[in-house]
Amino acid sequence: MDIERFEEFISQYPIYEYRIISTDEIKTEERVRTICREECTRYGSTWACPPGVGTLEECGRKIHSFPEGVFFSSVAEVSDIQNFEETLTTRRAHEDLTTEVGKYLTGEGYDIYILSTESCDVCDECAYLTGEPCRFPERMHPCLESHGVVASELVEQHEMEYNLGGNTILWFSLILYRKKR
Ligand code: SF4
User: Fold this and answer.
1) How far is the CA of 164 from the centre of ligand 1 (A)?
2) Number of domains forming the structure of the chain
3) Is the pLDDT of residue 148 over 90?
4) Helix and strand numbers, DSSP H then E, in the chain
């Protein structure tokens, strides 16, 4: 990736931090998906969640079929960090930003695969529930956790900020990329 061009591109967006990471360092762990299964109400309800995203092995193979990725965060501010509904409303801007970065990489001649935040809420009711294919695969970003990725570990390994305190939220995305064949 041409870092200079990429930095010029992202300078127009509120990306807080980013790192280019090798997929060799990305582990996929069953314990993360156990939390999805036991604690998330969206489990098994969208194509962006397990088990719809595939088995842990399939997710790992998918990730490692790309040599590297750009891992980045954006920051949002809310009036009350304890208000879950309000924090979730800030997620859409991060997803839109993620889509724009993905479009940039596609335009630069890369195949991409996006992992982002939470589950997909593009449609009112996910096609997964009726056994139909995803209606908008290009807009659907499975979350990092659905693939067993521990975002906090990547943050730590790359000395990034995970929490800015106060009423701020950091959202994270990972866009894997490889040159089109
Ligand atoms: S885009 Fe629609 S059909 Fe596809 S995963 Fe998201 S909610 Fe489901």
Assistant:
1) 31
2) 1
3) yes
4) 6, 4
